[in-house]
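This entry is set out below.
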Amino acid sequence: MTPFGTTPDGRQASLFTLRNASGFEVQISDFGGIVVRLLAPDRDQRLADVVLGFDHVAPYVDRSPFFGALIGRVGNRIAGGAFTLDGHTYTLAQNNEPGGRPCHLHGGNRGFDKVFWDAEPIPAAGNDSSRLRLRHTSPDGEEGYPGNLIVEVIYSVTNDNALRIEYLATTDTPTPVNLTNHSYFNLCGEGHPSILDHELTLIADALTPVDSGLIPTGKLAPVANTPFDFQTPHRIGARIGADNEQLRFGGGYDHNFVLRSAPASTSTPRLAATVYEAITGRVMDVLTTAPGVQFYSGNFLDGSVVGKSGRPYPQRSGFCLETQHFPDAPNQPDFPSVILRPGETYRSTTLYRFSTR
């Protein structure tokens, strides 16, 4: 554990390092559960940091577009900042306004990305060489959500160069829950100006199309014969400028993809995506138990933020693959439910596994 700077309210943040024998390394802050650094080898075994972010905690408080953070209670957008559950309507913070239409985004004004988590290194187990447990209790009424929610997240570094993230939660009152991590990746290394030549494969034959406010319409749309078809590998930049309404709404890719097959269990993730970068040879496989993944191509990065490398982050200098339940699920009865009830345990697991070609 090392110091990571002080937040504006005077609290000291800490950084925890997870590492395996080959040098694969991840650094995580107790503020926001943020993945601050991820050092992955290229085909010549040279390590580079492949996640966007900052060198100290202060910018994460007020200048970060969720770099590396844990997201909750509910990741992604909720239309109008409201939902009805068991006959009661709950009003949430409206902290995002795409297309001039207010909504609730990523847990609100003070979501899980803005809180201090109780952090505890734990002994290695199985194929994991280094682990960190984070705990947080979200009180009843926080950001408008019902119930006291107890959340546990376990970060693990495995001996086959994966970052494993396990999410668990329990509640005393029915409440929606959709936890994810919002890391921005660039397999050329943090500070490289573009991800458009990265090659992406998504194991998804449908997406949830959105309206001009980036809220799902409630329907599923096939990706075949559209710029959203990544069932076979395509460069991220190959079709990002196509004349397509969905791309115009998102300013590029900012959409939830419906993963093709359900996992065998909540503890057995299946392959959801693969990203390949030809210059370095880095490959990142994403495996998850979640039903969807939000592919975001860094459309709202604008060069105003300077990262760890000392270089600014221009548009599309990082991409996200946020494993998740579908956006606006509390208001969409045909989507998989995100309602957690007393006596149940929310469980979800995602791995970001690195290799080379």
Notes: Helices lie at 58-62, 245-250. Residues 118 and 135 are 5 Å apart (CA to CA). The first strand starts at residue 2 and ends at 6. The radius of gyration is 19 Å.
